[in-house]
């Protein structure tokens, strides 16, 4: 579905919700890594990060709500930054 399709409003919100849910999973994995970093958790973060990026891309393709998209983008960027800090410290 493409942006601007009024029929897709419910799906737009669903895509945003899926992106937000993906970021919540990412946050959870990052919190685990902050307290108990290990290779398994770092792999889980990488997987969660990729899923969150894909979910955001899908939401961007169908959603006109720039404010909501910006919020999700900022949250993802913040989680990516935290992941990078953990990664730089090593396991």
Automatic annotation (TrEMBL):
Composition-biased stretches (Polar residues): 1-10
Segments of this protein annotated with the region Disordered: 1-20
Coiled coil: 42-89
Biased composition (Low complexity): 11-20
Keyword terms, alphabetized: Coiled coil
Keyword flag Coiled coil: yes
Official protein name in the record: DUF2524 domain-containing protein
Source organism: Gracilibacillus dipsosauri
């Amino acid at each position: 579905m493409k942006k601007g399709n009024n029929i897709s409003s419910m799906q737009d919100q669903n895509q945003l919700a899926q992106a937000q849910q993906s970021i919540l999973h990412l946050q959870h994995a990052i919190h685990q890594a902050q307290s108990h970093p290990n290779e398994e958790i770092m792999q889980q973060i990488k997987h969660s990060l990729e899923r969150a990026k894909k979910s955001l891309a899908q939401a961007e393709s169908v959603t006109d709500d720039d404010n909501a998209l910006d919020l999700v983008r900022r949250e993802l960027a913040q989680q990516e930054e935290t992941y990078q800090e953990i990664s730089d410290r090593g396991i």
